Amino acid sequence: MTNALGLAKPRAPRRPAARRSNFELYSWLFMRISGMALVVLVLGHLFIMNILDGGVHRINFGFVAGRWASPFWQMWDLAMLWLAQIHGGNGLRTVINDYARKDATRFWLKILLYVSMVLIISLGTFVIFTFDPNITD
Amino acid sequence: MASTTATEREGTSRGGGTLYRGDLGMWSWVAHRITGVLTFFFLFAHVIDTALVRVSPQTYDSVIEVYKNPVVNLMELGLVGAVLFHALNGIRIMLVDFWEKGPRFQRAMLWTTLAVWVVVMVPGAYFMLERTLSDLFGGK
């Protein structure tokens, strides 16, 4: 009835009842929805930071302070941080599922991935909300 | 129009003809993966370097100086190229998935993606490297 992968053959007389979760469907949909938002957020970010008047050469603490004085750019960066981490993390989850051969390897690589996602999202969110332009005063 | 038909492929693969030998679409898939993973790893470093604004202006400024180094500047151009390909090919994937004519035009859309990539990257590279090149060779 089932093969080594635990999948029922398509024409098997009795296939398992309905799948318990639509997680992979929602993750597929999320990649497309977040992808559309990220096209605007990330390409906009790259254009401003790397190309617009002087690009990376004009970036310093004062430049960051000027941008984060505006709630608009704070929200832009916050949305970009969350969406990019979850979009990229979900992509890497797929890559790990595809290439990890042993269950233990797959498990630990995913734990490492999830820990790094939580770390980066928390750190980034913390920095955006607690940024202090007068930190040295 | 569209992709190579089954008959064109028939007999071209060794060992029974069931081996998937890939096509342009496979390479766009490979490139999408590589550019995606690359960008995700960069993001890890980038959020941490930006977080240094919470340490002190001097710490942040000294680390941001690294980005202005000619070699890192060139790597940054590579990153922009990777992200741009990923974005354009991502739009193509969405059109293949959601547009009724998408699958029929997938190959044409891949060439469009590459053409747009070149058209954006040429002026993009100019503006990103302008300062570095003039510092290195401008003799100022």
From TrEMBL, chain A:
<keyword id="KW-0349">Heme</keyword>
<dbReference type="Pfam" id="PF01127">
    <property type="entry name" value="Sdh_cyt"/>
</dbReference>
<keyword id="KW-0812">Transmembrane</keyword>
<dbReference type="InterPro" id="IPR000701">
    <property type="entry name" value="SuccDH_FuR_B_TM-su"/>
</dbReference>
<feature type="transmembrane region" description="Helical">
    <location>
        <begin position="111"/>
        <end position="131"/>
    </location>
</feature>
<keyword id="KW-0408">Iron</keyword>
<protein>
    <submittedName>
        <fullName>Succinate dehydrogenase / fumarate reductase membrane anchor subunit</fullName>
    </submittedName>
</protein>
<keyword id="KW-0472">Membrane</keyword>
<keyword id="KW-1133">Transmembrane helix</keyword>
<keyword id="KW-0479">Metal-binding</keyword>
<dbReference type="GO" id="GO:0016020">
    <property type="term" value="C:membrane"/>
</dbReference>
<dbReference type="GO" id="GO:0046872">
    <property type="term" value="F:metal ion binding"/>
</dbReference>
<feature type="transmembrane region" description="Helical">
    <location>
        <begin position="25"/>
        <end position="48"/>
    </location>
</feature>
<dbReference type="InterPro" id="IPR034804">
    <property type="entry name" value="SQR/QFR_C/D"/>
</dbReference>
Automatic annotation (TrEMBL), chain B:
<dbReference type="Pfam" id="PF01127">
    <property type="entry name" value="Sdh_cyt"/>
</dbReference>
<dbReference type="GO" id="GO:0006099">
    <property type="term" value="P:tricarboxylic acid cycle"/>
</dbReference>
<keyword id="KW-0349">Heme</keyword>
<keyword id="KW-0479">Metal-binding</keyword>
<keyword id="KW-1133">Transmembrane helix</keyword>
<dbReference type="GO" id="GO:0009055">
    <property type="term" value="F:electron transfer activity"/>
</dbReference>
<comment type="similarity">
    <text>Belongs to the cytochrome b560 family.</text>
</comment>
<dbReference type="InterPro" id="IPR014314">
    <property type="entry name" value="Succ_DH_cytb556"/>
</dbReference>
<keyword id="KW-0408">Iron</keyword>
<dbReference type="GO" id="GO:0016020">
    <property type="term" value="C:membrane"/>
</dbReference>
<dbReference type="InterPro" id="IPR034804">
    <property type="entry name" value="SQR/QFR_C/D"/>
</dbReference>
<dbReference type="InterPro" id="IPR000701">
    <property type="entry name" value="SuccDH_FuR_B_TM-su"/>
</dbReference>
<feature type="transmembrane region" description="Helical">
    <location>
        <begin position="77"/>
        <end position="96"/>
    </location>
</feature>
<keyword id="KW-0812">Transmembrane</keyword>
<dbReference type="GO" id="GO:0046872">
    <property type="term" value="F:metal ion binding"/>
</dbReference>
<keyword id="KW-0472">Membrane</keyword>
<feature type="transmembrane region" description="Helical">
    <location>
        <begin position="30"/>
        <end position="48"/>
    </location>
</feature>
<dbReference type="InterPro" id="IPR039023">
    <property type="entry name" value="SdhC_prok"/>
</dbReference>
<feature type="transmembrane region" description="Helical">
    <location>
        <begin position="108"/>
        <end position="129"/>
    </location>
</feature>
<protein>
    <submittedName>
        <fullName>Succinate dehydrogenase subunit C</fullName>
    </submittedName>
</protein>
